[in-house]
Write a structure and sequence with these properties.
Two copies of one chain form a homodimer. Chain A is of the alpha/beta class. The first copy, chain A, has two domains: 2-108 and 305-327, 2-Layer Sandwich (ornithine cyclodeaminase, domain 1), CATH 3.30.1780; 110-302, Rossmann fold. The first copy, chain A, contains eleven helices and 16 strands. In chain A, the strands form two sheets. In chain A, strands 1, 2, 3, 4, 5, 6, 7 and 16 form an eight-stranded mixed sheet that branches. An eight-stranded parallel sheet of chain A has the order 10-9-8-11-12-15-13-14.
Chain lengths: 329, 329
Amino acid sequence: MVRILTKENVSQLLNMSDALKYVEEAYKQLTLGNAFVPQRIAITDPAPGLTLIMPGIIGGEMSALATKIVSVYKQNPEKYNMPTVLAKIMIQDINTGDIVGIMDGSLITAMRTGAATGVSVKYLARKNSTTMGIYSAGVQARKQVAGVYYGLNQKLEKCKVFDFKKDIAEAFKIEIEKELGIEVEIVESGDDLLSNTDIIVAATTSTTPLFSGEKVPEGTHISSIGAHAADVRELDSTTIKRASLLVAGLKEACLAEAGDYIIPIGEGIISEKDIISIGNIITGDVSGRTSESEITVFKSVGISAQDVAVGKLVYDRALKEGIGQDIDF
Amino acid sequence: MVRILTKENVSQLLNMSDALKYVEEAYKQLTLGNAFVPQRIAITDPAPGLTLIMPGIIGGEMSALATKIVSVYKQNPEKYNMPTVLAKIMIQDINTGDIVGIMDGSLITAMRTGAATGVSVKYLARKNSTTMGIYSAGVQARKQVAGVYYGLNQKLEKCKVFDFKKDIAEAFKIEIEKELGIEVEIVESGDDLLSNTDIIVAATTSTTPLFSGEKVPEGTHISSIGAHAADVRELDSTTIKRASLLVAGLKEACLAEAGDYIIPIGEGIISEKDIISIGNIITGDVSGRTSESEITVFKSVGISAQDVAVGKLVYDRALKEGIGQDIDF
C-alpha cells in the first residue's frame, strides 16, 4: 500500500518548527556515522533541463530511507506554464525496502532548505539576534525567513529584503508580515542589507558574489543556500577570509559542489580542513560561535538527508492523522 | 497528473516481443552516445537489505527519462511474507522534468532482463538454434526463456532446465510449456544442460562458476545474467578464454560489477579491450557471430537504460489504451 500525498496534504502536515528539528537530527546522525548520503546523480543531456536523483538513509530513531527526484527546467514557466522546480519524494520502509509513500516534494525542498539555515542560525548566530537581511524574495527566500525565525526561537523582529523584481519583493513583504508577524523592509540595493542586520541570507540564482566581504559588519552570521556548482558562488573570497567559522551542511557535499568554498580553496586563501560540517557543532565535537564579534558562514548545497528526514516526518504524520490516499500497486 | 500502473496493469500492457525491441533500441542509443546511464547508487547500512537507485535517459525517438528504485531484502519472504525483490519505476516527461507515471517495476525487471538475453541471442546465437538449457527455474529464469524464444523469432523448440529445487522446476515446466508451447525437460545435473543445446542461460544466485568451460560444446551461445558483483561469477575462466566474443550489456557496467569478466581480467587471461558492448554489434561497428563453431558469451549486470526503455513503452501504451489511474499530486 502506497500513501500518496499531494502538495496540499504536505502543506497541511508540515511546519517549519518541526522541519528544523528533523533537519538538525539528520545532520547529527550524519556526523555520528548513522546515515548515508551518496553524492547525488545529475542527469541533463539529451533533456532540456536538469534532474537530480537524491537518495539517502538515516538510522537511529528516525529510521528513514527515501529518494527525492527533483528537476530544474528553466523554460517550464514560459513554455509550459509550469514551475521551474518539480520534485517528488519516494519513502521506503527501511525494514522491507517497499515504497510506502510518494509525496510532492517542492514544498519540502523549500522547507528543508529554510530549516538548514534555521539550524545554522541556532548554532552560529549571536544569541541576541533580532534582525536579518535577505538577497532574493523568491519562493526559497520565504522559507529562509521562516527558518531564521524558528532558528531564533521566534525572536526575529525585522527582515530587510532586496530583489531586482519589485513586485516579487512587495508580495514577499505582504506574505511574511502576515505569516510571521515581523516587520519587512524592502531596500533599494543589496548593500543596504548589510547594515544593522544580525543575519544575512543569500538565496539567489546569482553565479557571482552578491556583496563585498569588506562591508560585512563584525558579528554577522551569513547563510548561503544559492549557487551550487564548483565554479559559481554567492560569497566573495574576502567574506570567506574574514569568517572565523566556515560551516557546511555536509563538508563532502560542499567540497564537491560549493564554489563559495571551492574557489577560495583554489586561491589558497583557505584549505579543506577549514571547512566543518554543522553536524560536528551539533554533536559538540566543535564549538560554534564563541564571541560576539566573529563572522560565521554557513553554506548548504542541499543534501538528500534533509529531504529524507522531512519526508519521513510528513509520511509518519500523514499515517497518524489519516491524511492522503492509499493506492495498492 | 501522474498515471499510476499496478503490477496487473503492467502485465496487461507488456509482452516480450516489444520488450526486446525496446531494450535493443536502448543498447543502440547508448552506443550512439544518445543515452546516459550513470553508475547506479547502492544503499545498504543501516538498512537490513539493499536498495539500488537506477536513473537513466534515452534520447532519439524514445525520449525517455526514468528512475527505477529496486530493493533486495532477503529476509522479506520469511519475516514479512513479502517478495525479496520490490521495484517501482518513476517516468518523467523529458520536456518538463515532471513525474508523469509511476509503475510497479518487478515484472519489468524480469522482462527487461529476459529481453537483454533475447537481444544477445538475436545477434550472437547460431541462426539455426532451436534448443536451450537454463540454470535455475526461478522467476527470472522464466522470462529468460521467453527472451530466448523471441530472440530466435519463436523458433525455440526445447528448453532443458536444472534447479536444485524439484518443485520449482516442475512449476517452471508447466508454466513454460503452456505459455510458449515448447518442450521442457527437467535434467538431473547442471552438466546435463551442456549437451545438445544451442544456447545456455545462467540465471542463478550462485557466486561460483556453474560448469567447467571444458565441457561447453563448440558453437554454443552463453548468456549470464546472475552474479553481479566484482568478486562473484557464474562462468569460469576457461569459458571466458574459449569464447571468441565477450559481449556486455554495457561494457562500463560489466567492468564495474561483473566478476565473470573482472576475475579473468585480473588473472591476465583477457584484457578490458576484449569486452565489447552489445550496442556496438547492434550498430554494426563490430561483427557478431561469424562462424558456426565459435563460442559467444553475453554478460549483463542490468542497467537502468533497460528499465527506462521498457518503462516508457508501458507508460506510452497505458496512455494510449486508457489503462491505469490518474492522480494529481
